[in-house]
Amino acid sequence: MENSIEKKHLMFLISFFVACLFLLPMQGYGLVVEGDFEFDPSTGAITKYLGSDENVVVPETISGVMVKSIDDYTLLVTEA
């Protein structure tokens, strides 16, 4: 009987953690535009550069959140 209760508790904990893995990323703050940058505060990633400067200075923080990464192709220059 006690073994059955332990299995139920274990299954509950596993289900809870799996649900958290899927639900927590969906609770992002949305993208923020500050200065020349579009930023995702839930990941700390700069998602787009909106400026036109050739020399870009990446800030340490945007909207009080530490910048952790720059998404692929964010600073890619394309000829129009």
Please provide a written account of the structure:
With 80 residues, the protein is an alpha+beta fold. It has one domain. It has one helix spanning 2-23; strands spanning 32-34, 37-40, 45-49, 61-62, 65-66, 69-70. Strand 1 (32-34) and strand 2 (37-40) form a beta hairpin. The radius of gyration is 20 Å and the shape is rod-shaped.
**Unreliable spans:** none
Arithmetic mean pLDDT = 82
Q: SSE order in H/E notation?
A: HEEEEEE
**Structure summary, number of beta strands:** 6
Q: Indicate the proportion of strand residues.
A: 15-25%
Strand order of the largest sheet: 1-2-3-6
Tally of domains: 1
Number of helices: 1
Major sheet, described briefly?
4 strands, mixed
Shape: rod-shaped
What is the helix content?
25-40%
Rg from C-alpha positions?
20 Å
The SS-based structural class is: alpha+beta
How far is the N terminus from the C terminus? Answer: 71 Å
Please write out the topology.
Layout: H1 2-23, E1 32-34, E2 37-40, E3 45-49, E4 61-62, E5 65-66, E6 69-70
What features would you highlight for this structure?
1 helix; alpha+beta; rod-shaped; two-stranded antiparallel ribbon; 4-stranded mixed β-sheet; single chain; 80 residues
Short structural summary:
By secondary structure, this protein is of the alpha+beta class. The chain has one domain (2-70). Helix content is 28%, strand content 22%.
